User: Fold this.
Amino acid sequence: MIEQIKFATLRLLEAPSFLPRVDRWMRRARHLLARSSRAMAHAPFVCLFVAVALLVPISVKAEDKQTIYFFNQEANINNFASLKLEFDTYFSGLGGYQLQPFNDSDIFEKTVALKKDGVLLLSSWHYKKLKEQLSLKAVLVGVLNGKTTQKKVLSAKKVADTQGIRAMKVASAGSKEYTRNILEEMFGSQGNEFAIMPVPKDIDALMAVGFGMATAALTSENSLSNLENINLKQYQQLKQIGKSGEKFLMIAAIPEDTEAGNAPLLGMMVKMGATTEGENKLRMLGLQGFRALSATEKEALSK
Amino acid sequence: MKTIFEKFACLTKSIGSTSAIGLLVFCLFACLGVSEAAEETRNILILNSSMATEKYALAQAEFKARFKGANFVDIDLAKEEFDEAYVKKIIREKKPDVIYCIGSKAYVLAHEIAKENTMIFSMAINWQRLPMGENTYGISNELSTGMQLMTFSYFFPKLKKIGVLYSKTYNMEWLKNTEKDAQDMGFEIIAKPVKSPNKLESALEELLPKVDALWLISDPVVLSDQESTLSIFQKSDAMKKPVFAYNEAFSNYGALLVIEADIPTIGEQISSMALDILANKKIDERVQAPAGSHLILNMKKVKEYGIELNGEAIGSANRIIK
Assistant:
């Protein structure tokens, strides 16, 4: 029930003109109530009328724009308001597009399953999890510093033995499920024994180790190398105690048979990295650009 | 399984069937008891200084979302009906395993009336000034200075001379520790003491020309009223010197970067701490610093002052002001 309410609320908030519309309808309802002496008897009907009137234009509005549905398992940062504002402002000059960021994987999955349209922007791990269920097709991959993949590394001040792992608290910007999955890849079933402390960003995870709030940090290799420039002393204190295989950066996927309809949006996404303004927006997602996936990369993602 | 039955048959022969069955039943109940104890529901009293304060309400929600299966009793101390006598009564009746205090007011009250109880706290400004009981644990409201400096460096690697206005009464010790951290990261802290609020203007005029940026810290002599805050921002702006600040409120004045503790992360830390306490695990540090930051970046000022920004850091900002 709570999930349904959350989902319904999210749909309502999707409409940019939602709040002014509520205000307008409330004023009209109050006006009606004031005019009629029998208003109290009609109150439930007025409420029902307002609710129906609100929902109808919203569903029309949401279909007006092509949407990028965004959810990132690899970061807990709450910057959704800024992301939406920045991307939608950028898109406003390029066509009828919008970004819809999510902070809850369940709601994200339910929304994309229901809508079956637009472009999904998600981690490669999440894509692999959903591709069969939602009949998705990966089309683009994110690019950072000329690379489309990254490795995850576990860094700590001390190298731990089996006993030590059990006592380790791992700071990670990823969701608990994602983090556990990477740790299992690194350490097998022992990966389950780490305590996980979610933090908003990779830099927080590294600082948490440096300042003693966590014993290890799971970050991208790129974030760890950035630490060398920010705080050399802390960087030198850290040892890599685990490393994952190469992981794709963010994937743009579409529901099957929607290629033609999504072609303009995908084309625009590829062009974003070519302009400073577009790149600055993509930086908010930790990327510099997008490019089409090669046949080999698609093959790797299908496994 | 066969071996267990064989052993049970032997036991039946030696002590008699009635006694053996009795023993078996006893063992079964004992096992059930153990599993029930493991899933024992805990009583947690949440004392909130004021649910009307958005951050306090968020802290409570984040804690409860992560602490599943407990019996919660929530008291909003901002409501008149919840006075000291009422809180005492609740503690007597509910016998909470842990009291979670949100904000200083809640903590001070809990410490006065229930200092023998296990207490955890968060959102208490300058926790060092609070009395600490033997069973008190918490997450501080302030990020460590090292974390703040690293964040400055991550966003603005070229700003190395950082100015600080402080009063010796409140921040002498803080300054000493910060200078050490700053040195490790290649910063130069240029500090100027302010004896009284009326010396602020002259201190600012002397300090600003020597620094790349000003770091605003929580100091009642420096930030004595709204006028002094306004004056700091106006003078810094006139000289195109960016200001780093510690509270969202300063973003309205034009702070270049605001660094605060991230409340959901505090919720994660405090709930994990509570679980460890209830499981009788050793707590290494009784008061921990927040492990996550919430950042507000003012891009308008970045452009206006022509400051070099590390592009990769943009993704770490929670809010961007344009």
In short: Chain B touches chain A through 33 residues (CB under 8 Å). The radius of gyration of chain B is 27 Å.
